[in-house]
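Appendix C reproduces, verbatim, an entry submitted by the partner laboratory led by Prof. M.T., so that reviewers can inspect both the input and the predicted structure.
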Amino acid sequence: MTPPLFAPFAALRPAPGRAAEVAAPPYDVLDTAEARARAAGRPYSFLHISKPEIDLPEGTDPYAALVYAKAADNLARMVRAGVLVREAAPCFYAWRMTMGAHVQTGLAGVAAVAHYDANRIRRHEFTRPDKEDDRVRQIEALNAQTGPVLLAWDEAADADAVLAEVTGAGAPEVDFGADTGVRHGLWRIADSSRVQRLVRAFEATRALYIADGHHRSAAASRVAARRRAAGGAPVASHESFLAVAFPQREMRILSYNRVVADLNGLAPGAFMDAVARRFTVTPAQAPVEPDRPATFGLYFGGRWYRLAIHEACIAHADPVARLDVSLLADHLLAPVLGIGDPRRDARIDFVGGIRGLGELQARVDAGAMACAFSLHPTRMSDLMAVADAGQVMPPKSTWFEPKLADGLLSHLLD
């Protein structure tokens, strides 16, 4: 029997009043030094589980076996201390994130591995085997999934209605402002009628889309396949993965900008002439934050320019080629600057839009980079079109904000 697309689960979660001291940024947005600093003086920060190398001597290989064992020890310690407690019965959670004026409200539950494997839960990125291996080892060591996958849904009217009912009926059980600048609110949804309405609402959807968490979902699929092959029950908890789904209309993607170290041997004038062959170049009096697709900002030689790609260069029928990140790569970065593989070329770096245009300008002015490009954010509709076509997006195409917190909900594999 095919499991439901999205289902409730018995979460491991912070005890009442402990969420703020447990919650941590996602494991993959901090390096070890940053995580160690963030967790200093916070013995119950979830970073002790998601980045356990911070509790081992400096220089410890973060992929060493003792690191995963330390994560398991730390999780057990927090359970013994009563900081993390298990729900008595499966339920969903409404999860609201507020960052400045932006608010988005979604649903936390578990998504079925079977639907991921069948591509009903759709992906848009390649994964790296080494990063998948890391997540597999973390899941196996903890016997739990602790980092939620960020999903998007297109149309699920009754899910919208239930979330509105729940969040409008009273204050959240969990409500705190994290040090990331995001306010998190969680409402528990245990009423059987609402739970079934939510299950049916997602069963009626055509697909869910992975926004962030491709390695976590791929690792969950591998763990499920391994346990299935070893005789695991087909309805066991390893057949699902922790996720939070939001309506795509509420999700916010920021631009993912580019900086390049040199001009590929071109003189400044020759570089600008080459750019002008495929873009209309207009000097700007202020930093350029593109306000529509197919336009870009260029910071070079101490000043900003607005670039508008020539219409003839846009392949409107191809969902990948028409992306702004592809237009810049295919018509400027590769032919002019010689960057054919941005995944591996050390001459290019990527700057998340949350860092602002000032970061681009500063890196060029400091001499670390020769030029910088600002992009219009990828649209959710474009991401979904790429996923529907079974294609993948270029690297560093999306930067989602706000980001989910680790530690507020974990999925134990019984």
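The chain has a mean pLDDT of 95. Additional entries are available on request from the coordinating office.
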